[in-house]
Amino acid sequence: DKVFPFNPKSVSAAFTRATRYLGIADLHFHDLRHEATSRLFERGYSIQEVAQFTLHESWETLRRYTHLKPEDVPQR
Questions:
Q1: Alpha-carbon span 76 to 74, nearest angstrom
Q2: Phi then psi dihedrals of residue 46, to 5 deg
Q3: What are the domain boundaries of the chain?
Q4: For 4-19, how does the pLDDT look when each residue is reduced to its tens digit (9 = 90+)?
């Protein structure tokens, strides 16, 4: 069973139409993964916890999706 029972091509096409309609240039559906990864780290999740959400198998690949500023990361 799928969590979201939608055809991936339909989702991609709808996202593309929406960005064009809203006049948002150079935004791709995959960019949302980068954004979500950074926000999880900003909320204080550990590397292992974020990897469980994003399904990255290594820190090397996960790091490519992470765009953080030091002031946005909570101190533990």
A1: 6
A2: -80, 170
A3: 28-76
A4: 888 889 988 999 999 9
